[in-house]
Protein 1
Amino acid sequence: MFAEAIEAILVDHCTPATLRAVESGQRAGALIDALADSGFFDLLAAEDEGGGGATLSDLFPIAFLCGGHAVPVPLLQTIASRLIVRTGLPPRALLTFAPSLTELDGEVRAPHVPAGTVASHVLGQMDDQVLLFTTADAEISVTGIHASTVASFRWKQGVGTALEPRAGPAELQPLAALLHAGLLAGAMKAAFDLTMQYANDRVQFGKAIGKFQAIQHQLSVMAEHVAASSIAAEAAFAGYPLMPRTIACAAAKSRTSEAAQLVASIAHAVHGAIGVTEEYDLQLYTRRLHEWRMAHGSEMHWNSVLGAGISSHAGSVADYVREITA
Amino acid sequence: MSQLLDNFRLSAIPARSEAFRQDVKGFLKQHVEGMPADLRSRSWMAFDATFSRQLAKRGWVGVTLPEAYGGANLDAFDRFVLVEELLTAGAPVGAHWIADRQSGPLILRFGTDEQKRNYLPRICRGEIFFGIGMSEPNSGSDLASVGSRATLQANGHWRLTGRKIWTTNGHRCDFVIALVRTSGDPADRQKGLSQFIVDLKLPGVTVRPIRDLTGDSHFSELFFDEVELPMDALIGDEGQGWHQVNAELAFERSGPERLYSSIVLLDRWITWLKDRGEFEQHAQAIGRFAAHLFTLRHMSIAVTAKLARGESPVVEAALVKDIGTEFEQSIPAFVEAALTATPGLRVDDDLLRASAYVSQMAPTFSLRGGTREILRGMIARGLGLR
């Protein structure tokens, strides 16, 4: 039910034109105001803090929506930030995550933070400490990747505010990865829907290209991986009220990241050259599929995490896999 | 836009079914654990009537059938748990597999009271074993082109002539349920087909095992030469064979056996790596298999939830089978290469045999129960593309 209300805002205020405007450096004022005014930033905050009291599993449909609309601001991270800390977050702040802060030469550094150029704050982790920074205080550098909002930050040591974790020592990295698994699943579904539409509309050799068996089989494979990604992410969001299990996040981020490459590739293969043009919307999704695949660890990282788990597990692989969400 | 993908939503196995798992694990520890990995890799290809009867004694054959017919009255989730444990252990379940999975449920759904009373209790006791009679020498993926024919006689009996092929363990089974033409001709396609329960001991039936590339004879070919079938050999309604066979295929395609065909090899390889202290080298690849299995298992449970609700998730089952068999095939493809990543290392013969068996049989994973191309066509139809 939260998801429907958020979707209504996104339909109105998060159009492909909004995405293009944000990616060219403009502020998504109407979108951010509508989201902040709606109170959805506090959806997961504890009820005794005036929040919505929703849980991690309520977040999956929202993650899927944010991915499906390629939301160009860190809405999902902002909503999820309430799982990590109970108090101390500025109410209208747009937060993004930097799970592995490092200290060097009197500075705190956060490399390649997703949505860094559009966030107002960064919630970071150094050892067991959760630290809040404003992006205004930082020295910011961008990657130079066209239209990307990824940014690297450097802050003077001591400018961050330490916040009390809401439930035990915080583990930002798996949570941040899980959020991106949900975003990937939603963006893959959107890319799939666009590709299906195109296959039905585009006529060659006197019929819709979707009538050709070679195209049908590519779309079937794409559908399999979109379905797989969606349920892998959904499973990892389920079952825990606040923080997810690391191995569930690992499985979800690995599976969705691996699928992202394949799904983007089939989407473009079916579209032909129009798919890689700036003016056609497919690129709004496929560029994000690649960026989100890399965000907070690709499948290679998370496969290693799962591998390490199996290394120290006494039962069969099937037992290990079953216990991921048990 | 098609709703097919919306059907893959998370479902959980009920606690009641999970509680059953430990019983099954205990039984398998006692009966299967010491078997060599290459034998365990055969699992639902391996025919072992004694083992099936031991399972039947526990009440674990025909588990979804009602108690009135000797079944355990368990639901699709319970069966998922049972089958998952049997397959991951590599239990030799081939003898009763087809009856438990599809013939029993088919008879329950389409059979007369008399047929149910005749066959189902014997299935549940592990006394009679069934095979599938769908493919023919000239009718594989194009199943509606079957040419075997049963003709109604003046005395009400049927006379069956034709051939069936690729029936798993047909030479060891007691019955097959055969899809044959009862009216019209092959040009009529799906119309005029019916299903018969054929007793393989009847005069005129010849069963010939077919040797495969691994040295096994798990396939067989069946010849029907004017076989006189009693009136009640017809199962379901005359002319409804196509509809019935599709319901049967939903059972055939949806189960965990489409995820676990290579799992014994994977576990055996991991044990070997751990024993040699070489796990780390392949930790990432093994982690990837786990991520895939995690996902496929949830997809399969989503399909099981539909079966448990009494639906017939034909397209969803096809989708899971296609992506599941790809996973099954990726395991031997990787393990085979990994085993001699360092030439000269001594690999256990039991592991080598398992790797060879699974590698050689892996192409059949995406043939049996519907080829990859047929399944992708079904998905495309489910997506509204055809």
Protein 2
Amino acid sequence: MTLPMPPPALPRRRHILAGATGLAMGVVLRPASAAAGDLAVAVTAYTQGAPVRAGKVKLDVAELVDNGNVVPITVTVDSPMTAADHVKSIAVFNEKNPQRDVARFKLGPRAGKASVTTRIRLATSQQLVAVAQMSDGSYWSHTVNVIVTLAACIEGDP
Amino acid sequence: MARTLINAPSTARRGEVIEIRATIGHPMETGFRAGEDGKVLPRNIIQTFSCRYNGELVFSAELFSAVSANPYVAFHTVATDSGTLVLSWEGDNGFSQAESIKLVVTA
């Protein structure tokens, strides 16, 4: 009486197993690719589709971060900061926090020096991008990879 | 009133680039974190920071959840005339605070 039962259970178990691995792969792969795409989308939204060139901008951040809750960053842009040639704005984006935006700064010739420092949170090891908008309408960027050992958002308050 | 810590020179020569560093006591609750009851804590962040030099906007910042608690911002400005610099912070739940510092500019 119990013999006919096991045969149908085996294929079903295999089916579930196959489904589970497929699901796991989907879970692992999707956030990574979506995040990388998100970063590009966020930068494009900021530049309104204008091309972004690498250079002029220096995003200064420790490559190995001990505490993701407080990560000092400094963005410096090579610019004379005159009325004719200055930095209009600087934006910082991240790859894997829950939100792509980190901070946006508005500067002008009155700033005298295009250098801004702040402290940010990083949820995990990821890419950071600083984008600067010049007065002539061009955009320049610097991308940095950061390794975070203690992540923000997970391991309690700073 | 949140506590603030502002570090800036009190005197400068005309045309000199001065650095202003400002911190304000604020939790900067991200809106992505769960509390002890498992519910997501509502977002409570400072959204904007600005600096007005004798009424003219010289620097402003838009902050997001990724900025650390007790947000710190350091920036520069050119000392043009003696006067007042007003630093103001605005955020969620009607948060608004302004602090002013005096700057004496010598020729």
